[in-house]
Amino acid sequence: MEDFEIVDLAIDVLSNVTSLVNESLYSELGGELKILWSTKNYFYACASVGSEVDEPPKHYITLSYETAVLLYRDIELYSKYIESGIDNGMFDKIFKDFNYPKTLFFHSDQELSCKQMFISGVTWIFYHELGHLIQEHGYIRKKHGCHVCTDIVDCASNDIENHTVLSGRASAVSHVTEMAADYYATVSCLIALLMHFEGEELEAETRSFTSALALVLYRFHGINPYERTEVPYGSHPQPLIRLEQTMPLIFEFYDKFDLADEKSCNLNRADLVNMTSWSSFTAGIFWLKKGNQKGIPEDFMISGSLQRPGMIEYHRVMVDIWDAINPEIEKVKRHSNPYAELQFSDQYRKILQNGG
Predict the structure, then answer these.
(1) How far apart are CA 57 and CA 136, in angstroms?
(2) How many Cα atoms occupy the beta-carbon half-sphere of 208 within 13 Å?
(3) Which H or E element spans position 74?
(4) Model confidence pLDDT, tens digit, residues 198-250
(5) Is 166 exposed, middle or buried (0-12, 13-18, 19+ CB in 10 A)?
(6) What digits encode the pLDDT tens for the residues 326-343?
(7) Is 47 helix (H, G, I), strand (E, B) or coil?
(8) What are the strands, taking DSSP E only, across the chain?
């Protein structure tokens, strides 16, 4: 596909999604959601607000055209990398009990497979921004000193456009609302998959989604080594932390349904754990090769949300700050969807309390 065709596809997809969200949600609130496009020449996404929390919402999601192009090109190259089989020897050892896919081209038309994965990825970015808007994270962040306005700039652009480095409580509020937006986006995408697909098609589309999600978050991370984090710093959690928080949502959410009976799909929890692990690992290796990195930096691969050094301490902060601000979010959020709202289970809290 040419760049302009990729942009046209992204505009078409997100225009349709925006219309659906307006019909199902914003019309009932007397407000409107608009999708805007930017000419910024880097990966960029932004959620902005033109209303007060006690007024009908005027919400805006902005993506750069370059976001669409970069994401599609990543997917093209990643799909060709998997198809090449160049690292299957390594994958055979790591995933010896899992019949991992040797190709991501689940349509006879390879371009169509890339398009489907692209739609998953760009839709996840859209819903991440929508999660910020629905829960009025801009208002919450401004209230807690994260920003002077209610706009939220996301994606790789936070390194370019955010000139004030957050610390302390402001950083913790910013981090946990990013987690909440990731949670909202991931579950929203999974709900859409369950609504539109079943059987082998649902399995293929789920695998496509896990790969697209891994590619998005590794693009944010690049080839940098992981930095030990015990106390939140800056506006966003490290992308690898975000990846380790979002991937388990896929098998945890699907566990709520009898896929075999309701969707004629044979995926079980073990399959989904292997699928998400494979997608994350291969996306990581792909990024290292794309960046001409020799060797694997320490703690570069997904390892579980509490297994990294410092993660017990970090997540204790996240749970505490979420418990503190969630009542404020409950008062101003525009819509309730218990499935898609960040939650920490009693078991998870107990693990943190006991130190792992």
Answers:
(1) 10
(2) 29
(3) helix 65-84
(4) 999 999 999 999 999 999 999 888 777 777 888 898 888 988 889 999 999 99
(5) buried
(6) 999 999 999 999 999 999
(7) strand
(8) 32-38, 45-49, 58-64, 152-154
